[in-house]
Amino acid sequence: MNLPININDLLTARTVEWERLEFKEGWDPEAVMHSLCAFANDFHNLGGGYIILGIKEKDGRPVLLPKGLKSNQVDKIQKEIIALGHKIQPFYHPIVVPCTYKRKHILVIWAIGGQTRPYKVPVSLSKTEKRYAYYIRKTSETVIAKAQDEKELLTLAATVPFDDRMHHTAIVNDLELGLIRAYLQQVKSALFDASTKMNFVQLCRNMNIVDGPNEYVRPKNVGLLFFNAEPFKYFPQTQIDIVHFPQGPGADSFSERIFKGPVHNMLQEALTHIQHQVIAEKIVKHSDRPEADRFYNYPFIAIKEALCNAVYHRSYEIREPVEVRIMPNCITIGSFPGPDRSISDKDISEFHFASRRYRNRRVGEFLKELDMTEGRGTGIPKIIREIDKNGSPLPIFHTDDDRSYLTVEFPVHPLFLEESAIPRRDTGQVTTEVGIKSGPDRDQVTGEVTGEVTGEVTGEVLKLLNTLSDKPMTRSQCQAVLGLRGQANFRDRYLKPALQMELIEMTIPDKPNSSKQKYRLTEKGKRYRESIK
Questions:
Q1: What is the mean pLDDT of residues 306-321?
Q2: Which residue, of 95, 191, 288, 339, has the fewest CB within 10 Å?
Q3: DSSP readout, 45-97?
Q4: What is the pTM assigned to this prediction?
C-alpha cells in the first residue's frame, strides 16, 4: 500500500506538527482515537492528515533518530486501530501503512477527511465513560469542539457534497482520457501538455476526480459527470429535456429533444439548440431617427445563465431531468430540488439567492473554469440585467414550501405576443408574475378594470382564467395545462385568490373536497377576462 506523499517528505528536519501532521513516540490508543476523530472531521477542509507512530516529537519537530516500534507491536497496533474505528460514530477506518525508517519500524496512519462527517468519540476509553465529544484540529493540537466550533461543524460539515464523493461501483478506467484532455485544452491548463506523459491515476489525482488508496482508486462522482461519455448510466436522468409546445401545453402536438452526455457538453448542445431554434429577433424602425431598436423574444444570456444554474444546482441523486418547456408566451426551466432553505421567500421575491451552502461545489468549479457560470451568487443579478437591457418582463420563480423544485419562467417580450396588451405588475414575488418594464417604475394591476374586481389580479390568476375559458376543469387538469407539479403552489397562488375574488367558482360548492370537484369561470370572471383581452 502506498501513501500519496513520500515518507521522507513527511520526516525532514524542517517538518513541524501542524493541522495535518502529528507524531507519537509510542502507542496511546485514547490519544490516537481522538486524533483520528479530529482528522476525519477535517474542520478546515484540508483533506485530513497523518499520525506517525514510533517517532518522538520535541517542540513540535520530529526527533529523527527514531525509537521506532517493536516488530511484534506493529500487527497488534493495526488490529487495535480497527477496533478504535468502531468506537467512532459513525464508524471510521483510516489507512494504516507500516514503514521502515532508518531501520526502525514505524506506522503511518493516513486519516482522510470522512465522507459522513461529523464524527464523535468517547472522551475516555474507560469502561465507565459514557460521554462523547466532537474533536477537531486547532493548529497542532487535537481539541474538543466547543460552542461556535461545534455549531459550525454540525451545520457546515454534515456531509461531503454528493459530487465530491467516491463512486464505489465505478473504476478508474470509466474516466476517459480523451474527454479529460479536451477539457484541459479548453481551459488552457498546464496539465494538458503533461497529460500525455503522466500516469493516468496521477493525472486524475491532480484534477481531484478520483479518491482512495492506490489499490482501491475510485472515480469521484464529479469525474463521472464530466469525463464519462454516458454519465446517465451512473446517475439516471442526467439529461436536459427541451419540449416545444407550439400551441400551448394543452394542445395535442409537441416536440421533444433530449440532450445527454458529459455535463458540460450536454449543456452546451442544449444552449446551441435554444440559440438557433428558439431565440428570435425583431427590428423596430423609427421615423424620427435612423437608428433601429432590436429586441429578442428572450435574452439569450439570461436563458443561458438560468439553464447553467439549473445544471449546477440540481441534485444528481434525484431521478428527474432538467426540463426546458418552450410555449407561445414563455419559456420555463425547471429542476429538482428547489433553492436551499436558507433562502427565504422574501429573498426569492427580491431576487436574492445568495447561499453559503452549495449542493455541487465541484460541478460549479468545472463550469466556472469553462466560463459557463461565475459562482458567488452573481447569476440572478446577471439575468435581471439582461432582461432589463432587452425590455422584457421580469422572470417568475415558482417553488413550494418544501423547496422540492424550482421553475424559472421567462415571459416572452411583449412585441412577440399576438396580443400586445398584458397586465403589468410591480416587483417580483415568489411564484407570482412580475412584469413589463415601463419607464423607471412598474405599474401594478389592482383591479378596477371592470369596476367590479378589487384586489390584486396576479399573473397566476389570469393564467387560471385563461385555462378555464372553455369548460370546467378539475384541479389536476388545470395543473397539467399550466405545467405545475406542486399542489400547494397551485392552491395558494392560483386557486384560492381566484375563488376569493369570485372570478371562479366550484361546480359542487357544498362538497369542496369532492373527488368530482371542478372549477369554472363566474360571470364576473368572464367579464374581467374579456376586458383584459
A1: 93
A2: 288
A3: -S--EEEEET--EETTEE-SS---B-HHHHHHHHHHHHHHHHHSBS----EEE
A4: 0.55
